[in-house]
What we know:
Blueprint: H1 2-17, H2 21-40, H3 44-65, H4 72-77, H5 79-85, H6 90-119, H7 127-151, H8 158-169, H9 171-186, H10 191-220
Amino acid sequence: MSAFAAIIARDVRLAFRRGGEAILTVMFFLIAVALFPLGVGPEPAVLARIAPGVLWVAALLAATLSLDRLFRADHEDGSLDLLALAPLPLELVVLAKAFAHWLTTGLPLTVAAPVLALLLQLDVTSWPVLIAAMALGTPTLSLVGAIGASLTLGARRGGVLASLIVLPLVVPVLIFGTSAIDATLAGVETGPPLLILGAFLLAALPLAPLATAAALRLALE
């Protein structure tokens, strides 16, 4: 567990040393959401109707911006080879790096979401469900994103390729994350969409590290 925590701490420190990537991700999230009122007009009813989808689409796009840094820097300086040879299984190394990615990307997006919901005139009563959906959905984005980052490791313009691979895979997260907020606004039960998001996360926790580790081993051969 000490090695697992050390990898997380290392990746979080590196993320902030490289120019505050967490801040850049949140800034992209903010700008992307702020463009919609300018494009569709300031009508509160219209903004409130599109707010759940806008927030989730912007969050998905913002999260994919930093996928390229998950393994590329370690691959270029040889650190990834050392991590693959370390006593800690490569699957746990992947899980630690995905968790660090969530701490520097998904968590800031989750914290920023209610502030941007206010900009889109989203009803305050839906904010707890918005936060819960983001908290369940964004870790899945990091785990699935690790698969895309490992498959494009060493490729030119790997960040773009990783985004193209990952975005179709996380469409279910977008659908049920939006459905949970819509259910709150409609006054119906929000449990099923949140439970499905939780199921996606529970499925991704064991499966994504296995798939990512297999892809990394192929890339390192």
